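P.,

For your records, the input lines for the assembly:
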Amino acid sequence: MSNRRHLSVLASAVAGALALVACSDQTNVTTVPKRPSFWGGVTECVTGKWTGGGRMDPPNPDVPDGATGTSTMQGKVTFGFNVFLGTDPVSGQCIVTKGEIQVNHHPSHTSWHVSIHNGVDDFNETVFAEIISPDASGRGVCLVVGETPITARVDGQKGTDQVQMELCDNDPDAPQNSRTDAMRWITAGHGDTDLTYLTGGNIVDHGA
Amino acid sequence: MNDMRIHGTHHLAALGVVVALTAGLAVAGTAQTVSGQAFSTYVNTSVASSIQSPLVVLPAVSGTDGAEADAEGAGVTVANTLSSDFLNSITSGELDTSAAGAQSTASAADINVLNGLITADEVIANATSSRTGSGAVSNADGSTFQNLVVAGVALTTGDGPVAPNTTIALSGVGYVVLNEQTLSGDGVTTSGITVNMIHVYLQSALGGPTGEIIVGSATTSVGS
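C-alpha cells returned:
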C-alpha cells in the first residue's frame, strides 16, 4: 500500500530527528535539527509503560516549528493514551503489548482510535515501538508507537486510517509542566501535526 | 444522543464504575490515589434532563500502572435547552515509584444553550494534576472557548481563554460561570481541579436554584 510505504519512510526518516528536537529544552529548538553521533533509537525493550493526555495546537505556538517545519494537520488536537511495552517473541523487537490511543482533530471533527490487546491491534497488526533515550539534552525520553504504521478506526466505525504517534516525556520526575512534553500524530489520510509541545496535559514514561 | 462509543483499557470505565487508582508511591511512603473524569454535556432542569455524556471515569488500577478511558458522541439535543455535536471525553492517569498524575479532556462543538442565549463554536476543558517529590499541582492549561457569545456579547474571537470563574448574570434565567475552576488539595501531597467551561445556574424569580446546564467538564486529582 502506497500510504503505508510513505508513512514508513517518513517515520524512519524523521522520527529520530524529531524526537531529538522535542526532547531538548524548548527554548533551544532549532529549525534544522542535527542528529548527534550518539543518537540511536532502541528497537528492543523488555517492559515499559507510558500514559498521558491533553491538548496541542500545531503548528507549535511557542517556538519556531522545530521539527520538520511542516504541519499539514493544524489546529486543536486533544488526545489520551495508555500503552504497555514488551518484546515481540518472534522478532525480539519492542512492541506495544496492550493499550488504547484516542486522538481528536477538532477543526475537521475527526477522531482516531487504536486498541491493542495481546500484542496486536484490532486488525491483527503487531504494533512496533521505538524508545529514544537519552535525547540530546539528556533530560527527555521519547517513544514512537507504530514504527511500522498501524491501522486506526476513524470516527467510530466509519473508516480507517494509517497512523503513527510520537511521544516525548521531557520532565521525568519533575514538577508537571504542560508546555514541555511533546507529541506528534501522523496520518495517511489527514496529514501530520509535526512534533508539537503540549498546550495542556502531560506525557509520562512511568517505567517498567 | 446517538452513536456514542466508549473505549478504555478497563471495561469498568465504560460502566462508569470506580474512580480511584491506588498504589504505593516512594515519595510519599503512603498509598496514593489518582482520579479523573470528563464529560461534554449535562442538563438538569425542571422540564428537561440529559445525563453527563459522554462520561468517562478513570479506571481502577493497582501497582505502578496506568489507565485510559475515552468516549465520543455524535451530538446531543435537549429541546429549547442545549444542542451540541462532536462530543469527546478522555481521561488518563498513572502512578510510578516517584510520581503520579492524571489528565482529563472534554470537548463539545456547535454549542447552543437556551435558544441562542449562549453560543460557541467549540469549548475544550482540560484538567491536569500531578505529584512528584516537589509537591502536588493542578491546572487547567489548554482550556479555551472558540467564538463564545453570551447574551449577544462576543467574549472570544477565534479560540481563546476567559478568566477563571467569570460570572455573568442572565436576566430572567439565572447566571453563568465561564471557565469555572474548583481547586482542592494542600499542594503538598494532594491536589485536584474541576473545570467546567460553561456552567449555567438556573434560578427562579426569587433566586432559588431550579437547575443547571454544564458544557465541557474535566476533573483530575492526585492524593494520598
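Two observations worth noting. The radius of gyration of chain B is 18 Å. Residues 10-28 of chain B have pLDDT under 50 and may be disordered.

Regards
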